[in-house]
# Entry
Amino acid sequence: MAEKKGVGHAYNIDFLNVVFAASSLFLFLAVVWMVWDDFDRDWKNTQRRFAALQYQVTELQRQQASRAIDQNKLKQLQAQEKAAQQTIVANRQKVDDLQAKLADANIRLGRATTQAQFAKATYDHDRYDFESARVAGAADAASKQQLVADEEKQVSNLNLQVEKITAERAAIQKDLDQYVGQATTIQKQIDDMGAEAGRIQKQAEVLAPSVLKDYFRNAPLLDFMAPTIKIQQIILPNVVDDVNFTRVPKMDRCTTCHQAIDKKDAPNCGTPQQPPCWAKAPQPFKPHPNLSVYLGGDSPHPIDKIGCTVCHEGMGQSVSFTGAAHMPADNKQKEEWEKNYGWEEPHLWDYPMLPTKMTEASCVKCHKQQVYVPNAPNLSLAYGTFERAGCYACHKTKGFDAGPDIKRPGPILTKIDAKLSQDWVKTWIRNPRAVKQTTWMPRFWYNTNNSSPADAVRNEAEINAIVAYLFANSEKFEPTLRTPARGDAKAGEQIVKSIGCQGCHVVGEGERTAVGPHRTFGQPLENIGNKTTYAWIYDWVRDPKHYSPATYMPNLRLTDAQVADVATYLVSLKGPTGDAAKATPDQKAVDGVLLDYLKATMPSADAQAQLAKWNPEQKQVELGQRAINRYGCFSCHEIKGFEKAQSIGTDLSEEGSKLVTRLDFAFVTDIPHTSKLEWFRKKLHNPRVFDNGRELQPLDRLRMPDFGLSDEEVERLMTAIMSFQREIQPPAAYPPQSARYDYLQAGRTLVHRRNCVGCHIIEDDGGDFLKLVSNPSLGPPRLTPEGARVQPEWLYAFLRGPITIRPWLDVRMPTFGLDDVKLNGVIRYFGSISNTIGPFQTHEIAHAGSTDAAGKQMFETFQCQKCHVLGAIPKEQAIDTLAPDLRMASERLNPDWIVQWLKNPLAILPGTRMPGFWPVDTYPKSPFPQLGGDPDAQMRAIRDYLLTFRGGPSPKRSAGGSTTATN
Amino acid sequence: MGFIKGIFNAVANPWVFFTLAVASLAVLVWKRERVASKGFGYGLLGFLTVFLAFGTFDPNFRLIVTKPDNVPIVGLIFLLVFFVWYSLREGVLNDRRIAAGQGPIEKAESDRVWVWPDLVYTELISLIVCSVVLIVWSIFLKAPLEQPANPANTPNPSKAPWYFLGLQEMLVYFDPWLAGVVLPTLIIVGLICIPYIDKNPKGNGYYTFTERKAEITIFLFGFAVLWASLIVLGTFLRGPNWNFFGPFEFWDIHKLEALTNVNLSEYIWVRAFGRALPTAWYVREIFGILLVLFYVLALPVLLGRSVFKTYYEKMGGPRYYVGAFLFVMMLALPLKMLLRWIFNLKYIVAIGEYFFNI
# Structure
């Protein structure tokens, strides 16, 4: 450098030239790169792909529409048009003349119209001028008035002229139509035939690739002006995002990529020659499933009111795949996404998208008073599992407050002495699932954080002490019979398997996950013979409320002989004896454990002094009391001395909104520390896992017990947890409130909490017992139409004291012993499902002789009695075709419903054996001649005839009646 | 490999880190002839590059260093090292010329100012290069949309903007009113005062070290050690709960440090005198107050009569006192750091009654 420097330059200018050239080149390349980077954004490419796809589909639609045109008719019309053209040619001179006149009239009309518009504008301006001048009392008001009056005249003159020319033009047109009218009409017909194709053609033209669109409007660097590729967004005033300082309307840009999300497929899509179905399009172009419920314009959740992220979560404003916080449904999808989209665990958004299976968790944000949301099977299953596992007992949770609506999940332990032996209880609580595979009772000891040999001594000390406390605090209980006679186990098994016990109880069959929450509502019956005595089972089966007044177990109204059979069968169910004690704590060990507990609440010296005051038995009981308190046994079980104890777990009411930073991942490093779901998954699989690698004093360790949850159950519980959200949506987002809505939600909760859905299908939910019955017509009835079917008074009486409606069934409606509030709730619920709640109605039977006779006649023609009982059960009839006694109809059924039922039974109960006598497709024609062939009159006649029957079985007569009502 | 990382982690501990920074400055000044060689400069930059390259194989290191917020600080390290070294080298070269009686190189061509095309051209090139860097940077390091700010959920660690991390580091040792108000104010006031205190015309328009030993050393101590190195420490080595983490350590939110600090009054009353703390704050804190007063008011005077006597005579009373006051205030930070590290000293004066702690 030095040589050139001397000439008068600090630097070598040649070298600077090179640097300048190079840096300019780099700048150019950087700018190109920047423009390209913007042009190449994922969402823009996605829209380009969609445009191509949409063009393709539209083009196919257009072709289809053109094909649909009737070519013969078109040819005919074209021929006619040609003929009509002849008329014009023949009168060329006249037509030309008239057309010239018409053109001239059009020009004059245009001029006159413009003139009139100008005059009107001037007049309006001057009139205002005059008006304001007059109000202000200006001196020139009078002259202005004159001006305005003149202008008004001028305007009306000009308007007259316009009218005149218009009339003139109409006359010319009329003359012209003599020659060209026919041709025009035919042309219009031809156009109409191609209207649909033309409409699609226009759409296709918009979508077709074009120079203007592709090389100008969407060109890199020019695409900021009027691009066709642009961000789509939905702004939702009724659904909000909480940005901590305020709440703002949600803004969802998901449709930027999910462009076909609300596209309805034509019913015949995908068939040959038809455009393909959007539903089969590759993601992100699939439409939302079930558009009639979600996103469709006429659905309850229209896209412009609900948007996307209120249900799916994720960042609605983002238009990048990862930025929107998409969440994969499983590991396979995760790996796929990582490969294809560079997906990574979202950590820049507090509420990442819910995996598809968990989306129903969001229903509760708006359907918030409802515990059980209709049409949300995953959520119902999640809540069912949540209730069965008894999560709410330790973890306070809104909507699941233990109390009159939902009882403690475990059996009472206040009379444990009469039911269980100390040794059995010890083995049981040491590892419940070793005794009963399907139980929901979790395991507190010998989990990952308390299994060392030193812990084993402590565990056994606690187990012994808890049992000691329970038995020391057990009330006396006197069973009805001390030594009841034995029955026949075989007969008992038959009863258990057929009468309906399995709606709530499993008898050692299947995994807990597969069996589901409804059938694990009651204790599993496997191994019950090891558990308790014959006398206790006998007493319990005979009348459960005798032992446990608040139990949900209903009374099945068995005879004493049947009770003995059932109890004999149950006591014969024996299985593994469970895990044996793993250590034998001596008195010193017990003292040590108790001292630890004492020291937690008082100074060491006081604790020592306290300990010295107790004898060994007292120490056991005292330690038991403290251990029960620590593990929260009282949350699930009623235990004497813990009536007022508070639940020990974290409040879960807003757990789904909890920020991931509030969760302690401790030394668990195999899950991303940015994922709330992974934390919950880990925790539920092993509730003590976050103690791994930590050095903690025994009383500082995690104490949530292990439920042995399967992957599926963990998913369900995570769905439940994610549904417990902070309430931020405004009332405008909620479904419309009404009395009916309240009844529905209260009723739905009731039928789930009392496990009616274990046997019955209600609103398409439940009916687990039905799956065990070989023939559905021999199972518990579907109750969805119950509100329309039966009269409320009858239902009330029936629920209080069920009667046998179909004596040929083995399964039986038990007596639940609900109080009036609950009974009314059930009745209102069914009424609300069918929307038949209203003022009381009487039904007057019109006793016109003619209809009576016709009714009777048709009743006989249809051979109703072949299946329906009328006093006596029809013989020679397979039992699965038998139908209820028609003598009950007058008291039981809603008269209106009978007509509906006769009209189309399949519409009310799909799969029913009841035949429809009036074919739906020929209605209102009747295949029967009676009553002038009017099907409605015929149905009414039959109905009226039915309602004259009397004397059938009635719950009203035995209302609240004896529990031993005969079958 | 683990052993080497362990050494780096240990070296990065605040007190080792700070002590090393001070020692490096001393070596830099002392062995400047060696430091000024091209080999040393390239070697230093090469070492930093190798260290970074080596470090990026470690997931924890990579996570912190490649965080878009932290990338500028990586650049800062290189630029700072380079420019300190470059200025020192130019100074040393000039010093040799001056010693040889040639005068500084800048004076040799002092009759010319190269504006056109040299200055204008290089400015244009700089502009272009900066644009390229900014564009490429903005393409590579995305600024993603994040979740809304949440007052109930502050990030852990909560860090000031990078240029304030030195100040934030001071909060570890001083109360907010000192670290956040008094000391920053004094920094600004001090910078304003420099031209009035330092009237030495030497070094004007040319690089030199020998002619301005004290000034350059004090500046480097204040800027490179107390400001820049604390920014580096705050950026890369302070993790959750403002705990210290080595460059290869995982930022575990559960990490605990045994920190029990004791006030001067407890040292004196309880430990030395073996009696309870007096209740009245002015009795309790009398020793601390006296010490602080001595440090701020008497020390400059004493120094002016002993060690800094020549400065006092050269500068005159007012300029000397202002300069000496600023100097002792600057030294207050390293002194308090040392007291904390060695004696676990919390406060010299701790008047909790009035939220007044020093």
Notes: The interface with chain A takes residues 112, 114, 117-119, 121-122, 124-125, 128-129, 131-132, 135-136, 138-139, 144-153, 156, 254 of chain B (CB under 8 Å). The longest helix of chain B spans residues 71-99.
